[in-house]
Amino acid sequence: MNRWKIIEEWIFKIISFIAAYSVVIILLYLLIVVFNKGVGALSWEIVFSLPEGGYYFGGGGGILNAIVGSFYLSLGATVLAVFIGLPAALFINVQLIRLKRTQNTIRFFLDALWGIPSIVYGAFGFAVMLLLGLNASLLAGIITVALLITPILVRAFDEVLKTIPVELQEASYSLGSTRTETALKVLFKQGFAGFITALLLAFGRGIGDAASVLFTAGFTDNIPVALDEPVATLPLSIFFQLSSPIEEVRQRAYAAAVILTVIILIISVSARFLSKRYSKNSIK
Amino acid sequence: MKQMAFTYQSGFLSECATLQNEMEMEKAIKDTPIIEIKDLTVKTREGVILKNINLDIPKNKIVVLLGPSGCGKTTLLKSLNRLTDLHKELKVSGQIIIDGQDIMRAGQNLASMRQKMGLLSQRPFPLPASIYKNVAYGLKLKGIRSKRLIAHSVETNLKRVGLWNEVKDRLKSPATSLSIGQQQRLCLARGLAVKPTIILADEPTSALDPISTKIIENLFKELKKHYTIILVTHVLRQALRLADHVVFMYYGEIIEQGHPDEILKNPKTRILKKYLVDGN
Q: Which helix (H) or strand (E) holds A237?
């Protein structure tokens, strides 16, 4: 190898090293800041109790309403998005297999939807809410967050399905499968590990988004028991606490951020674990 | 007495004639091709992949499609069970007659037509399920629900491909836990379970080691008693070892065809002579 090639190799190696580790460093720095500011204010009371009167002005209690509310909302939205997203992704990859132009057009629209800021979804959800005569509620929040994560989910499912070799589909067809049987019995199983990962990441995106639920989900100190009741979410809870002029409340915002971060980390780790577990039957 | 002798003689003659007719009919049935390909053309926007292919595939023989890469062998093979339908860019015209039915006509029951043809691809593609479920998959698609029947078929077909003793204690293990050679035999067992009459094999040994290759080749020799095998390969020695009939293709056309001794040892065309010398 001549000298220039050796230098080129080194330059490339250093740039790659810096790029890769800067991502890790940024994540670690973020975790350190959030944990450093939040752990001090974290207590069992914050995690397991509802806010008492005047919580956002320094009153007692916790944010159980926001933790449970976020789960309700994200779970509902993810279920709704899966019911739309999975058939849509299977349709694109199985029924439209011969129509490349239609496939690409749908993918273009999904990518465009993916890129729309969540506040726009919030505004759109608010308009739909008024149109349907709904109040700011769990249901309105679920619909809005589902709108936000459906394109993400469809494209993620779509990418999983695209990685499945066409020969596997051919093997299934040659045994006498119809398209539907191939989609449900072969492609779904082969992509299952990837679907789980996509699902959990979409759930994580839903649980962490504040803007889309700002106008639609409302806010309450209670845990909703019906779909037409307002719901508190962790991102909005953090937002309200951080906006407080009281230092103690701002500290609690970081505690809530720690809770949200831990939830997201658990989701990411679970996604990796489940993906590994369910991929043992899949061909590599 | 004379009358009796005449009657006996005419009876004998008529029996001989019947026997001869039966033998001729049997020979005719035997010689009737199982697949007739007429004017098959496959095109894309970029060009023609198969040009006016006319070919008769005889029953219970190993027919080898031979030729350099990109000559259309795989496309021809995939046309036979209409897997070309999965690729929009391919425009297919012509006739493929199997069991007297033109499979290219619209309204064909593709699922049952494809079950007549087992497919082995270059690399094994087991379904994302256990070893047992891989073989049982096609049976369930056929509507067989009896667990006893399915278990019997799984065992029989795994035995036919010589895999039973290697996997009988781990039938519930993922199919992907098998070696590549075992996976290829599993795919063959999976195909045989749906009782096809034709086996389409697209370079099935190209990813295998010599021992697994030999096992598959021996299986093919055994299977041809009951099945018609269409094998795509560009390994000349494999063609010589296995083929009853060789079809040499070049740029989407059939250049020569016949018995392997005839066409591989005494090629008539310059293209085939060059291919046999250069390998391309």
A: helix A234-242
Give me the domain span that covers residue B144. 127-195
Mutate to test the interface with A, among B115, B119, B125, B133 (most CBs of A within 10 A): B125
Confirm whether B260 is domain-assigned: no
For A141, residues 6+ apart whose C-beta sits below 8 A from its C-beta are: A73, A77, A125, A213, A216, A217, A218, A231, A233
In a domain, B148, yes or no: yes
B189 is a domain residue: yes
* Span B220-241, pLDDT tens digits: 998 888 999 999 988 888 888 9
Question: What ipTM score was computed for the predicted complex, to two decimals?
Answer: 0.81
Find out whether A274 and A196 touch, Cβ atoms under 8 Å.
Answer: yes
Identify which of B87, B128, B194 has the shortest CB distance to residue A283: B128
Say if CB B188 and CB B219 are below 8 A apart: yes
**pTM score, whole prediction:** 0.78
Residue written as token pair 């499912």: A157
Taking only the tens place, the pLDDT of each residue in A45-99 is 999 999 988 888 888 888 999 999 999 999 999 999 999 999 999 999 888 877 8
HSE-up (13 A, CA, CB side) for residue B203: 15
Total Cβ atoms within 10 A of residue B87 = 17
Residues of B in contact with A178 (CB under 8 A): 111
The tally of domains found in chain B comes to: 1
What's the helix, strand, coil split of chain A in %, to 5?
A: 75, 0, 25
> What does the block give as tokens for A244?
């407080």
Residue type, A128: V
Among all residues of chain B, which has the CA nearest to that of A187?
B128
Residue B244 placed within a domain: no
Alpha-carbon distance of A247 to A255, in angstroms, equals 13
Mutate to test the interface with B, among A175, A178, A180, A195 (most CBs of B within 10 A): A175
Report the C-alpha gap between B179 and B45 in whole angstroms: 39
